[in-house]
Each structure stands twice: as structure tokens, then as C-alpha cells.
């Protein structure tokens, strides 16, 4: 059913749960996994931090015996970068965490998962 799964990872607890779910799905379907971390700050320091965060997810997946095909670190608007990468890699499923932000934070900050769900051309699994 799924051959290519994208995990959007930011190091949060919900993202860690998304890695667990993606791992189980990848094993069940024999799928490859792609990892993306997006930094909203294009500075070298932020991108280096994002690389470490993305590698954390890849290491967790590999430790469970899951094939990680690619690790991407992008700078920009998270939802846009996740969706662009999903199209580039022609993934079948996007798995990401939901942070459970308060209503005020959601209003001010927007919701990456909500934006991805509403604009994605493939199924999106949001993990709490």
C-alpha cells in the first residue's frame, strides 16, 4: 500500500511518536522512509541544529531496522518545504506530529500539520 513514507520531524514529543508510527508502517508495508526537518531560520547555526535533529530521527528508524532513503534539511516555511519535498520524492504518505497548540498559539503561529493536511496530494497521518 505504501512504498515511500515521509516523516516530518522537529524533535518534539509528538514528532518522536510520528517516527514510531512511521517505523511500524514501513515494516508492515516494506516501505522506504524519508526524513525532513525544516528550519525557519536560514542561519548556518540553525541549519546545523536541524541536521542533528533530522539525524536523530534517522538513527531511531535505522535502529528499528527501517530503510532510510534520504535525510533532508530545508530552510523556509515548514508546510511548504514538507509538501515540496514530498512531491520531489513522490512519497505515498506523510507522517507528522501534532503539537496540540492552544487556540491562541494556533491563531498566532498557524499550524504546520493543518497546512500540510489541507494542501497535500497524498494521505497525511497526524500523530498525537
Structure description:
The chain is an alpha/beta fold and 128 residues long. The chain has a single domain (4-126), classed as HUPs (Rossmann fold, 3-Layer(aba) Sandwich). The protein has helices at residues 13-29, 44-63, 78-89, 103-109, 112-119; strands spanning 4-8, 32-39, 68-75, 93-97, 124-127. The protein has a five-stranded parallel sheet with strand order 3-2-1-4-5, sandwiched between helices. Helix 2 links the parallel strand 2 (32-39) and strand 3. The longest helix is centred in the middle third of the chain and has 20 residues, at 44-63. The radius of gyration is 14 Å and the shape is globular. The protein starts with a strand and ends with a strand. Belongs to the universal stress protein A family. Residues 1-128 form the UspA domain. This is Universal stress protein UspA.
Return the string of H and E elements. EHEHEHEHHE
Biggest sheet: strand arrangement: 3-2-1-4-5
Structural class estimated from helices and strands: alpha/beta
Arithmetic mean pLDDT: 91
Number of domains: 1
In CATH, the topology is named Rossmann fold
Superfamily (CATH H level) name: HUPs
How would the global form be characterised? globular
Count of alpha/pi helices:
5
CATH architecture term: 3-Layer(aba) Sandwich
Distance between the termini: 23 Å
Query: Biggest sheet, in brief?
Result: 5 strands, parallel
Give the DSSP E fraction (strand runs of 2 or more residues): 15-25%
Organism: Pyrobaculum aerophilum
Protein name: Universal stress protein UspA
Family: Belongs to the universal stress protein A family.
InterPro entries: Rossmann-like_a/b/a_fold (IPR014729), Universal_stress_UspA (IPR006015), UspA (IPR006016)
Amino acid at each position: 500500500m505504501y512504498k515511500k513514507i515521509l516523516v516530518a520531524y522537529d524533535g518534539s514529543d509528538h514528532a518522536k511518536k510520528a517516527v514510531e508510527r512511521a517505523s511500524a508502517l514501513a515494516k508492515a508495508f516494506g516501505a522506504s522512509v524519508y526524513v525532513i526537518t525544516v528550519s525557519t531560520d536560514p542561519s548556518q547555526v540553525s541549519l546545523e541544529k536541524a541536521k542533528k535533529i533530522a539525524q536523530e530521527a534517522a538513527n531511531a528508524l535505522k535502529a528499528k531496522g527501517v530503510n532510510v532513503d534520504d535525510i533532508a534539511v530545508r530552510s523556509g516555511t515548514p508546510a511548504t518545504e514538507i509538501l515540496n519535498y514530498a512531491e520531489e520524492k513522490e512519497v505515498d504518505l506523510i507522517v507528522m506530529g501534532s503539537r496540540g497548540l492552544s487556540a491562541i498559539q494556533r491563531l498566532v503561529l498557524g499550524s504546520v500539520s493543518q497546512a500540510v493536511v489541507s494542501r497535500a496530494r497524498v494521505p497525511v497521518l497526524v500523530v498525537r
